[in-house]
Amino acid sequence: QVQLVESGGGLVQAGGSLRLSCTASSGRTFTTYAMGWFRQAPGKEREFVAAIRQIGSTYYADSVKGRFTISRDNAKSTMYLQMNSLNPEDTAVYYCAAERLYFGSFTDWHPDYWGQGTQVTVSS
After folding, report:
1. Within its chain, how far is the Cα of 97 from the centroid?
2. What is the Cα–Cα distance from 120 to 76, expressed in whole angstroms?
3. What's the rounded Cα separation, in Å, for the pair 107 and 60?
């Protein structure tokens, strides 16, 4: 069992930046987890945003490629999502997700663990 706690959401103007953090309670096993971010906008289904494997390789949804950067600090058991050039379509609740010893595709990924979510609002 791992607990995930997100932080860093807020209100930002279009074109601005935010950095989200997700800290896991997994301790030294953090390196065994594939980590990712999903988001859910009002009235829409939850969608994949980005993921990072145990070895650090990264994957992005087309809608955020080139604007968002996912990273992880294994010493701090923390994952980050740097979001630049934000636009109102990025407004959503952003969720941190994790799955231990997952090495499969991130297409249609269903992680085992989820954070409580953090709100990101981009004003036009």
Report:
1. 7
2. 23
3. 10
Which tokens go with 24?
């896991």
Name the band, by pLDDT with cuts 50, 70 and 90, for residue 110: very high
Contact 70, 52 (CB under 8 A): yes
pLDDT exceeds 90 at position 122: yes
Angle ∠(109,112,115) on CA atoms, nearest 5: 100
Largest Cα–Cα distance of the chain, in whole Å?
42
Amino acid identity for residue 68 in this structure: F
State the pLDDT at residue 28.
82
CB 70 within 8 A of CB 51: yes
Measured between alpha carbons, how far is 29 from 45 in angstroms, rounded to an integer?
31
- What integer pLDDT is reported at residue 26 of this predicted model? 79
Name the residue with tokens 């989820």.
114
Distance CA(48)–CA(13), nearest Å, equals 23
Flag whether pLDDT at 69 surpasses 90. Answer: yes
